[in-house]
Amino acid sequence: MIDVKQIGSYFLQQPEVAAWPALIEVWHHYAQNSRSSRLPELACRAVGGDEEKVVPLMTAVACCHISIVLVDDILDDDPKGLYRRFGAGVAANFGLAFQSVAYRIVSEMGLETAVQQQLLAELIHLNLKTAYGQHLDVQETMSEDHYWATVEAKSTPFYGAGFFLGALVGGADESLAYQLRQFGRIIGKIIQVSDDLADVYKTPASPDWQRGSGNLAILYARLADHPDQQRFAALLPQVNDLSSLEEAQQILLQSGAVSYCIYHLLQQAREARALLDECELAQPELLQQFLAERISHLFDLMEASNMPLPVELAAELLG
Q1: Using CB atoms within 10 A of its CB, is residue 318 exposed (0-12), middle (13-18) or buried (19+)?
Q2: 151-165 b/e with 16+ CB inside 10 Å = b?
Q3: What is the structure's pLDDT at 311?
Q4: Could you tell me which residues come within 8 angstroms of residue 291 by beta carbon, excluding any fewer than 6 positions away?
Q5: Mutual angle of helices 55-76 and 4-12, in 10-degree steps
Q6: Which of 210, 213, 218, 256 is most buried, judging by how many CB atoms fall within 10 Å of its CB?
Q7: What is the model's pTM?
């Protein structure tokens, strides 16, 4: 496994970065605990490639992730966002810097021209598509179609790009690289729906309750026809009160909102497993385990909320 210090070295050796201490501080704030930068390494190992070759890509992916989080926290008015310390303008400017560093690192990898162009094109797609998804996410459009369009744009390109980049540098042919890109995009959907469920059962109330069109469970409870629909709507402005939050959370369970999210997770897990079965991988178990890990924390959430999953459903989710 690549050491996190190896990844940081590609970032820190950029001359502009060395002269910008605040940027280094932001890097250390996010990169030390980020698992997202591991996606290219995982894909490279799965296709049988030399993982040392993906270290620059891991740095570039980490930079893209940091730029996305910096801006996303501003748009979401996240109380834990780093912009609270630096200010929104400064944090947004940091986001531009991290994105630029990502492009430079890839452009200096010294790969075959055609491959390098593919890598840069994928990074451009990742950042542009995600920006569009973040734009959709702040629109108060109450429809499930809008929700899935937002997820497709905002939540899936990063994971798709991470796997695609690693597979390509790992020596996979283009067909396999695109299969793993699709696998990553499904993973993005799984993570989004799992996060939706996790966020609605946090105490105190997470920011998702204030912008419920971006959370599948809340959206279902607001739009679906069920006996507590009006009561749920009345509780939404009051969820900062613990008793109101608990009642709203109970309605999510009673209305079928939780089951609806689990249904989508099940469908996505099936799709991801079927896709992996089609891929000719040197180490398929790596991605099978990765998929299982993305699902497993859902069990902890359900158990903590006194909603254990049926044994047969848990077995199917994990495959």
Answers
A1: middle
A2: bbbbbbbbbbbbbbb
A3: 60
A4: 187, 190, 269, 272, 273, 276, 319
A5: 80
A6: 218
A7: 0.92
Q: Phi/psi at 271 (nearest 5 deg)?
A: -65, -40
Is the C-alpha dihedral spanning 144, 300, 163, 14 positive or negative? positive
Residue with tokens 């190896």: 6
Give the side-chain half-sphere CA count within 13 A for 189.
21
As a whole number of angstroms, the distance between CA 93 and CA 116 comes to 26
Distance, in Å, from the CA atom of 316 to the CA atom of 111, rounded to the nearest integer, reads 42
The Cβ-side half-sphere exposure at 251, using a 13 Å CA radius, reads 26
Tokens of 178: 């695109």
Token readout for 179 is 């299969």
Residue 272: half-sphere exposure toward Cβ, Cα within 13 Å = 31
Query: DSSP string of 121-134?
Result: HHHHHHHHHHHHHH
The continuous run of DSSP H or E covering 61 comes out as: helix 55-76
What's the pLDDT score for residue 14? Answer: 92
CB-based contact 42:51 (threshold 8 Å): no
Alpha-carbon distance of 87 to 150, in angstroms, equals 26
pLDDT value at residue 211: 78
- DSSP sequence for 147-195: HHHHHHHHTSHHHHHHHHHHHHHTT--HHHHHHHHHHHHHHHHHHHHHH
* CA atoms of 132 and 117, how far apart (whole Å): 22
Q: At what angle do helices 144-154 and 216-223 cross, to 10 degrees?
A: 170
Please give the distance of CA 232 from its chain centroid, rounded to a whole number. Answer: 28
Give the span between the Cα atoms of 44 and 2, in whole angstroms.
12
Residue 2: the pLDDT is 78
Residues of the chain with pLDDT below 70 are 32-34, 297-298, 300-319
